[in-house]
Amino acid sequence: MSMPQPGEAPDTARQRLRVWLRLLKATRLVEATVRENLRVEFDTTLPRFDVLAALYRFEDGLKMSELSAALRVSNGNVTGIIERLVTDGLVLRVPVAGDKRATLVRLTKKGNEEFSKMAAAHATWVSAILEELPPEACEQMIGHLDTIGNSPKLTAKVNGDD
């Protein structure tokens, strides 16, 4: 259990732990639903969807290292996914001018079209999953989650500044 900070009530630490556990449970449930929907409706995986989404945002493509950094995964994890996406005709490898070792990856026309369909379905699924939350509650949660996500304690650890 979390130790309360000096001057902080033990109930506050316990309540924050409960919030964390609820966030984790909700995230897992939503993710499991999205994974299953991607598998059933598009015969694809969430990691493939994530790679396509990252490439969709960068029309000119990304170097493999940039893609790995954007997804916060290792180059090895991305390489296998890219191989399969190239084989499926969804992604194209392009040499980087002036750098023989680097390769850009970007969506093909087919990849762009396929991802657009997946993204629309994804948005519909997530909206349906969260439909019981009124818009005001969504805005509050976004604010609270932004507060957590922008915490100097967390960003320093993620960026290796501690």
UniProtKB/TrEMBL annotation:
<protein>
    <submittedName>
        <fullName>MarR family transcriptional regulator</fullName>
    </submittedName>
</protein>
<keyword id="KW-0804">Transcription</keyword>
<dbReference type="GO" id="GO:0006950">
    <property type="term" value="P:response to stress"/>
</dbReference>
<dbReference type="GO" id="GO:0003700">
    <property type="term" value="F:DNA-binding transcription factor activity"/>
</dbReference>
<keyword id="KW-0238">DNA-binding</keyword>
<dbReference type="GO" id="GO:0003677">
    <property type="term" value="F:DNA binding"/>
</dbReference>
<dbReference type="Pfam" id="PF12802">
    <property type="entry name" value="MarR_2"/>
</dbReference>
<dbReference type="InterPro" id="IPR039422">
    <property type="entry name" value="MarR/SlyA-like"/>
</dbReference>
<dbReference type="InterPro" id="IPR036388">
    <property type="entry name" value="WH-like_DNA-bd_sf"/>
</dbReference>
<keyword id="KW-0805">Transcription regulation</keyword>
<dbReference type="InterPro" id="IPR023187">
    <property type="entry name" value="Tscrpt_reg_MarR-type_CS"/>
</dbReference>
<dbReference type="InterPro" id="IPR036390">
    <property type="entry name" value="WH_DNA-bd_sf"/>
</dbReference>
<dbReference type="InterPro" id="IPR000835">
    <property type="entry name" value="HTH_MarR-typ"/>
</dbReference>
<feature type="domain" description="HTH marR-type">
    <location>
        <begin position="16"/>
        <end position="150"/>
    </location>
</feature>
